[in-house]
Design brief:
By secondary structure, this protein is an alpha+beta fold. It is built from 16 helices and seven strands. Helix 4 (100-111) packs across helix 7 (161-181) and helix 5 crosses helix 6. The termini are far apart.
Length: 398
């Protein structure tokens, strides 16, 4: 007689295990401990075998019967349900081990050690926010191009073009890592070339005409404010490093006797040590600044605390107070000014590119050649400071 839920709930354990049959090989096994375990007996290739479905009530009577019918269906096809169950379990274990999320986290831990903590954090944020919710738990080798498009296209549709490209780039790098490990046979992102809109190039705002550059220099000279900020503004056109490299500068990076500033690799965008030769004009500013902040860590400490440098917005707000609007000038624009005018003045392009710390196509060569063209660059940097002085003086005395 088939089992009922009422009958199953009323069953009590006895001194010896008992079996309560439902039909079709399905029965409830009740040991002295009181557990109620679903079992199914069957024969395969002439041998008696047993299949476990779990315990009641976690697996209901209805569910147990459905699993029995599923097993009987496999037997009808000549498939051993036990073997199929083991294979499915192994597939699940493999899927969890080789999930996109697990491989991505391993890639993040092992391959990004040379990047700054901030950049690593940004990548991890994008993984957790945009990628893992959609494909994190899925076996990386089972993913298809359409699965990736379903992540990046909605981001692009919202107008977040750069984010969509960055997310696709991360997925691409994880797949490349998976192929190296043998966890995936093919990098499916290679099939998505051209799937996103072309990059929209945006130029950093900068005044590039010589007379306007002179007016900017004079506006900086006349700017009255927090002394370290004033010094940072005066050094920005002379040294033309990236804004973060300047504002986070520390005194231990400077050798005023040798007239050099060595920015360590961990603070550089390209993760390579960078040497900035210091002109006489720059040294004069730095020596005066040292009287103000030389006992601390940063050249340009925040007004609120000496344990942090001035913020990204501090220098930008100063430019706005001088009257320069967003479309006219940015802090990054000092690099554009130097690049444009130094090229116009006829300096060797390689010297300029090396001083701008732009990426070298030969990464190994660049990693060891941070002092490349150093004598020429020292001469160029001094002549550049002299040029800025002359430019300012000519306009001022018109």
């Amino acid at each position: 007689m088939p089992l009922t839920d009422t009958h199953i709930r009323s069953l009590k354990p006895e001194a010896k295990p008992r079996k309560y049959f439902d039909g079709g090989g399905l029965f409830l096994y009740v040991p002295p401990t009181g557990s109620k375990l679903w079992r199914m007996s069957y024969r395969f290739e002439g041998k008696s075998k047993l299949l476990s479905f779990g315990g009641y009530p976690a697996v209901s009577l209805k569910d147990a019967r459905a699993r029995r019918e599923e097993a009987k269906g496999l037997l009808a096809k000549g498939i051993d349900p036990s073997t199929q169950k083991k294979a499915a379990k192994q597939e699940q274990v493999t899927a969890e081990r080789d999930s996109f999320e697990n491989i991505a986290l391993e890639w993040h831990k092992t391959r990004l050690v040379g990047l700054s903590a901030k950049h690593q954090g940004t990548i991890l944020y994008r993984l957790n926010t945009y990628i893992f919710p959609s494909i994190g738990k899925r076996h990386i080798a089972r993913l298809e191009a359409q699965d990736i498009l379903a992540i990046v296209k909605p981001i692009e549709a919202k107008g977040n073009y750069e984010t969509s490209r960055r997310v696709l780039q991360i997925i691409n790098q994880v797949f490349r890592y998976a192929v190296i490990l043998g966890k995936a046979k093919h990098n499916i992102t290679a099939d998505l070339h051209g799937a996103l809109s072309p990059r929209k190039v945006t130029h950093r705002a900068a005044v590039l005409e010589k007379e306007k550059v002179a007016q900017l220099l004079m506006a900086i000279d006349e700017y009255a404010g927090y002394y370290p900020l004033v010094c940072a503004l005066k050094l920005a056109p002379m040294l033309f490093v990236r804004p973060t490299e300047l504002r986070c500068a520390t005194w231990q990076e400077f050798d005023l006797e040798a007239a050099e500033w060595r920015i360590p690799a961990e603070r550089m965008k390209m993760r390579r040590t960078h040497i900035v030769p210091l002109s006489r004009q720059a040294l004069t500013i730095l020596k005066e600044l040292k009287k103000f902040s030389g006992d601390g860590h940063y050249l340009f400490p925040s007004t609120r605390t000496e344990t942090r440098p001035i913020s990204d917005a501090t220098m930008l707000n100063a430019l706005r107070r001088m009257g320069y609007q967003k479309h006219e000038m940015s802090v990054h624009g000092f690099r554009s000014i130097a690049s444009t005018l130094l090229n116009e003045l006829g300096y060797n392009r390689d010297w300029i590119e090396r001083q701008l710390a732009h990426g070298d196509s030969n990464g190994v060569r660049a990693a060891y050649n941070y002092a490349e063209y150093l004598p020429e660059r020292k001469k160029m940097m001094q002549e550049w400071s002299d040029f800025l002085d002359d430019l300012r003086d000519k306009v001022r005395h018109k």
